[in-house]
Amino acid sequence: MEYGLIGGKLGHSYSKTIHELLCGYSYELCPLPTEADARAFLQRRQFKAINVTIPYKKLVMEYCSFIDPRARAIGAVNTVVNKNGLLYGYNTDYLGFAHLCEAHGVELAGKTVLILGTGGTHNTTRAVALDKGAAKVLTVSRTPDPEKGELSYAEAVHSGAQVVFNTTPAGMYPNVGVCSLDVAAMPGLEAVVDVVYNPNKTELILRAEEAGVPVAVGGLEMLVAQAVYAAEYFLGRKFEDAPGEVRRITAALRRETLNIALVGMPSCGKSTLGRLLAKQLGRPLVDLDEEIVKADGRSIPDIFAAEGEEGFRAKEAAQIARFGKEKGLVLSCGGGAVKRAENVRALRQNGVVLFIDRPVEALAVGGDRPLSSSAEALRTMEAQRRPLYLAAADAVISNTGTLAEALAAAQEALDEIFDS
């Protein structure tokens, strides 16, 4: 192996994609389930350069002849270069996190910073906060040690912090939807930064957005930035525009991994546009109404007849939760999907939401849509739901002309969102 990544479990790693998009060299994922496996790998030293992830960022330091002072101070190495049999260790997580904060205007000088978690990444983010002039750095733990000054999550709400860093795996795929800190009860928050990158927006970030926190950002850009700076060590040269490379690769990853969720009134064209969009982009299409029928074994009218709208909505929420955390899908949602806030969060956690907007007079009446029983029912429903569609959507796609025009508008909107 020339270049690659070692760690305990690497099944969901984006590192191979990032490095190969960035530099074009072959980059291998090398899972090492046990410490013995990791030690044997490091003793053989059959690589040019590697990245290191959990749980071996400390262990690898034992094998390094040189450790960069910043990495030694943090107590973790994530980048190792083999120079004639001698291993040189660096920490580009620091550079990646510093880039993430700077790129999103997170002001740390003079601020109180609250760090969730006590693991290795805590030390990295703490070093960045202190180096950038934070006035106070507080630590939050599920099992706080008062002698170390650690806070509980309940105490953290009243800490007066302006900035929150999450370094725990809370909300990480596949265990999404977890949020331990009540950010809505923390007035004065200026920024919430989560190192978790899968999903794109954790529950913490989604709730921070809902609470109106000015900056709420996940860790994808940090992941890309640390890889860019690691590649500089790998190749022994600087990129002419490292921040530009970070933006380019981040946009490419977002384009590849984020779902595209289509919302809007019944018969507005979500399914038809979804099929065209999925075909054009080479993505799977998931029609959530079809998935409800498949899972339940009854038609939607039969579900409504037996369990009412609430029963149907519970089944709908289960399918949105199932598919919303996945990646690279086109999701055609039922007309009422936006009625539940948890559905919107599930769609937004790893996806872009497009509102397919078709005039109410052009919508179909009746059919297998129990709530579209009359034109008057459609008008009432549209008036109630329209604000919810607009609040959920990243872009509005007008479907008043031809399908080709709507498809072109959707693609244009997606280009702008992915590249922003």
UniProtKB/TrEMBL annotation:
The keyword Coiled coil does not apply. GO terms for biological process: amino acid biosynthetic process; aromatic amino acid family biosynthetic process; chorismate biosynthetic process; shikimate metabolic process. Mg(2+) binds at residue 271. Residues 5-80 form the Shikimate dehydrogenase substrate binding N-terminal domain. ATP binds at residues 267-272, 369. Binds 1 Mg(2+) ion per subunit. Keywords: Amino-acid biosynthesis, Aromatic amino acid biosynthesis, ATP-binding, Cytoplasm, Kinase, Magnesium, Metal-binding, Nucleotide-binding, Transferase. GO terms for cellular component: cytoplasm. PANTHER family: BIFUNCTIONAL 3-DEHYDROQUINATE DEHYDRATASE_SHIKIMATE DEHYDROGENASE, CHLOROPLASTIC (PTHR21089:SF1), SHIKIMATE DEHYDROGENASE (PTHR21089). Catalyzes the specific phosphorylation of the 3-hydroxyl group of shikimic acid using ATP as a cosubstrate. Monomer. This is Shikimate kinase. It comes from Faecalibacterium prausnitzii.
